[in-house]
Structures are given as C-alpha cells and as structure tokens.
C-alpha cells in the first residue's frame, strides 16, 4: 500500500479529539484546580510515598491542564 493510498483511506475517517474544543476550558481549569490541591497536600507531607501518590499526579495534572488552557484560550501575540 502506497503512502498516497493510505492518505486517501484516512480521509474517510476524520480525526475526532477526545476532548472537544468547547469543553477544553473546563477540563483545563479542573485539572489546574486538582493540581493546586494535590500539590498543596504534597507540600504538607513530603515523604517518599507522597511523591508517587500526590507529587506525580499533581505534576501531570498541571502539565495537561496548562496545555488544555493554552489550547482553549489561545496565544495572542
């Protein structure tokens, strides 16, 4: 199968994102709020177990929340 055939076959099934454009702001805001809460709880109890249970989820929630907020609000220069 050539690349052109793959390209033509892919046009029949367009990409639909998991999070729609209309709900990116609310998802991003909730992820940032979750990151704030879990980072605060991690700051109160800094242990090795807390890194896996609070620190890592807080970092992931902040990262994904920030990307969703940038996509929802846009970047204006």
TrEMBL record:
<dbReference type="GO" id="GO:0008250">
    <property type="term" value="C:oligosaccharyltransferase complex"/>
</dbReference>
<feature type="transmembrane region" description="Helical">
    <location>
        <begin position="56"/>
        <end position="76"/>
    </location>
</feature>
<keyword id="KW-0472">Membrane</keyword>
<keyword id="KW-0812">Transmembrane</keyword>
<feature type="transmembrane region" description="Helical">
    <location>
        <begin position="25"/>
        <end position="44"/>
    </location>
</feature>
<dbReference type="GO" id="GO:0006487">
    <property type="term" value="P:protein N-linked glycosylation"/>
</dbReference>
<dbReference type="InterPro" id="IPR007915">
    <property type="entry name" value="TMEM258/Ost5"/>
</dbReference>
<protein>
    <recommendedName>
        <fullName>Dolichyl-diphosphooligosaccharide-protein glycosyltransferase subunit OST5</fullName>
    </recommendedName>
</protein>
<comment type="subunit">
    <text>Component of the oligosaccharyltransferase (OST) complex.</text>
</comment>
<keyword id="KW-1133">Transmembrane helix</keyword>
<comment type="function">
    <text>Subunit of the oligosaccharyl transferase (OST) complex that catalyzes the initial transfer of a defined glycan (Glc(3)Man(9)GlcNAc(2) in eukaryotes) from the lipid carrier dolichol-pyrophosphate to an asparagine residue within an Asn-X-Ser/Thr consensus motif in nascent polypeptide chains, the first step in protein N-glycosylation. N-glycosylation occurs cotranslationally and the complex associates with the Sec61 complex at the channel-forming translocon complex that mediates protein translocation across the endoplasmic reticulum (ER). All subunits are required for a maximal enzyme activity.</text>
</comment>
<comment type="similarity">
    <text>Belongs to the OST5 family.</text>
</comment>
<dbReference type="Pfam" id="PF05251">
    <property type="entry name" value="Ost5"/>
</dbReference>
């Amino acid at each position: 199968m050539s690349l052109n055939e793959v390209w033509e076959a892919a046009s029949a099934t367009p990409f639909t994102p998991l999070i729609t454009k209309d709900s990116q702001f609310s998802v991003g805001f909730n992820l940032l709020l979750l990151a704030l809460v879990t980072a605060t709880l991690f700051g109160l109890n800094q242990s090795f177990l807390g890194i896996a249970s609070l620190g890592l989820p807080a970092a992931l929630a902040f990262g994904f929340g920030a990307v969703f907020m940038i996509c929802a609000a846009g970047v204006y220069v």
